[in-house]
Amino acid sequence: MREERRLPHKRDGLQFLKTKTAYVIFVVLTYAFGYFSAYYYLQPPSPATTALRTSDDTTKTHDCSIDNFRITTRCGDLLPPELIRRTVIDRIFNGTSPYTDFPPPHAGKFLRRKRIKGWGSYGLVFENLIRRVKPRTIVEIGTFLGASAIHMANLTRRLGLEETQILCVDDFRGWPGFRDRFKDVALVNGDVLLMYQFMQNVVSSGFSGSILPVPFSTGSGLEKLCEWGVTADLVEIDAGHDFNSAWADINRAVRILRPGGVLFGHDYFTAADNRGVRRAVNLFAEINRLKVKTDGQHWVIDSINLI
Length: 307
Ligand SMILES: C[S@@+](CC[C@H](N)C(=O)[O-])C[C@H]1O[C@@H](n2cnc3c(N)ncnc32)[C@H](O)[C@@H]1O
Description:
Rossmann fold; 7-stranded mixed sheet; 39% helix; binds S-adenosylmethionine; transmembrane helix; SAM-dependent_MTases_sf; transmembrane
């Protein structure tokens, strides 16, 4: 009897898919695909941190392009610290100190001589870092009524750092509903007088020569400081506490940090931490292969320790 030649049939393919060999091939292919795609996405350290690691020449252009947000602008040439206050006054306040003729007549009657309230604003971390870094310039991101800024100014004065300037980036809007707890911060025609009360606190504390407001959103304020070549030895982050805000602030802040500077912030260990601050800090450190230290409720990323 002549054996009939079997033609390949679709069902053979289906049968094959049910075999152990097919299963093993499938597992191997899936693993290989995962392996190669992970390899493809592995990034070299970001240019921002590379600049921090390698640059010891503070007079050259600060190479701090950022890749996380596809922002391509570069920071301006580094300003010498002694020009920073003048530059901020010129660029933001048209050449006149905001403290000149302060307070304006329409606001004076609403201000209290000193109305200060902060959160973790007197933690030991401030003294520890200021003693160690001896900052010439500090940028605080999130200032509110100035508790931590004024505390830092007191510390720098006590430690003999008379030249230190503190720039306070805050939109001075607080947050929706904040006046439920701060009714005494006046609201005039829908405009909350938070910046004026902050400035009044600074004046009453005797620090108008060393603390300046930068009254913008953290995003636009930090972009401009970077563009003008303003850098800081210490940058403190304490503005929005959700992940997106903290993540954006950290990634922008690192661009204005001087080589060897220190980045730190509040709410790593507080009730607010899991709103996103700790996750943002940890992710940033992981991506850039940095070490997060803690000091009380604060996190500290010390660029001196960069690999
Ligand atoms: C927790 S308070 C800062 C407290 C201050 N560091 C202290 O300890 O005294 C947060 C501040 O961040 C400001 N803020 C929050 N998100 C901001 C943003 N996107 N741009 C500018 N300021 C912001 C708020 O206006 C508020 O004054």
